[in-house]
Amino acid sequence: MSAFSAIETKRDVDQNEFTPDIEPQATWCPGCGDFGVLKALKGAMTEVGKNPDEVLLVTGIGCSGKLSSYFDSYGYHSIHGRSLPIARASKLANPNLEVVAAGGDGDGYGIGGNHFMHTARENHDMVYIVFNNEIFGLTKGQTSPTSPKGHKSKTQPHGSAKDPVRPLSMSLSAGSSYIARTAAVNPNQAKEILVEAIEHDGFAHIDFLTQCPTWNKDAKQYVPYTDVQEDEEFSFEVTDRQEAGEMMYEAESRLSEGEVLTGRFYQDDRPSYGQEKRHTGEMPEQPLAERYFDDSYEWERSADLMHRHR
Ligand SMILES: Cc1ncc(C[n+]2csc(CCOP(=O)(O)OP(=O)(O)O)c2C)c(N)n1
Ligand code: SF4
Ligand SMILES: [Mg+2]
After folding, report:
1. Average confidence (pLDDT) over 119-142
2. Could you tell me the CATH number of the domain that includes residue 233?
3. Around Cβ 135, how many Cβ atoms within 10 Å?
4. Is the CB of residue 137 below 6 angstroms from any atom belonging to ligand 2?
5. pLDDT for 202-220, tens place per residue?
6. Other Cβ atoms within 10 Å of 25 Cβ, number
7. For residue 215, what are the domain limits?
8. In the structure, what pLDDT confidence band is assigned to residue 11 with cuts at 50, 70 and 90?
9. Domain tally for the chain?
10. Domain named Thiamine pyrophosphate enzyme TPP-binding: which ranges (predicted)?
11. Average model confidence (pLDDT) for the chain?
12. Which residues form ligand 1's pocket by a CB distance below 6 Å?
């Protein structure tokens, strides 16, 4: 089975296949929420029947970035805030790969925020997991874009004066076609949401609440949590942009007050960037990555294509 051929193929996979021989045991701190993401991702890939060599996991920098060291697949531990452009290029070159990008709240909503916005807008077909622990974990607990107003840290000892970003609302207005929030303390829901995100054709963004017991001393453990699909208090249609937006705003406001609302918030089925490009004929049916290994292929130089644009 190769990464070029297998996207439609399902088979029985043993979850242990995603545990690497080199670093089988993650070195995150005891009680870290990141363990929950790893477990849910292994479970979801197993459930959808993926082989490790059908998956590319691209991570940013942070404690969260270590995910690619502890998950056995093709992996790319990239640079801070830059997992998405690498993931996009990889998916375009080899659409048969199941591409997952992952990183922290600082990585994705701060330094990489611009890439987040445009990858969502262009609806690139991939899963994007943001480990949201509401601080910079790896660098020892500084204030991040999702730290609540008033949160005290070494960089904001008198409390942050800034309102946090609203990741779900931001994602909706940017253009993500699947948006969910789950929590490391809710492994069953996390796995189900990841399965949906993997099966979704388009940009699937998951805001994954991950507690950091080492540096985020205010940290909620994100319990108790409510699933908005299960609780009668909430009634909205995930395919209705306006209703979904209102629900997201509510969930983000309640998180600041310590109430954790999780679940699926939005979904649409518009074509992904790759589908659009193939439809217009601008992208070849044969994956670029396959051509690369084809010695007989005659490459066109971009200068030779200029006539198309004259
Ligand atoms: C360009 C660049 N700037 C700053 C850093 C230092 N740095 C490493 S990780 C990090 C923040 C990590 O926070 P987050 O993305 O929330 O991940 P977490 O560790 O919480 O999982 C920073 C600022 C870096 N590695 N590269
Ligand atoms: S510092 Fe926080 S985020 Fe990093 S491994 Fe430890 S508990 Fe997890
Ligand atoms: Mg963080």
Report:
1. 98
2. 3.40.50.970
3. 27
4. yes
5. 999 999 999 999 999 776 6
6. 7
7. 15-309
8. low
9. 1
10. 61-208
11. 92
12. 61-64, 80, 103-107, 131, 133, 135-139, 144
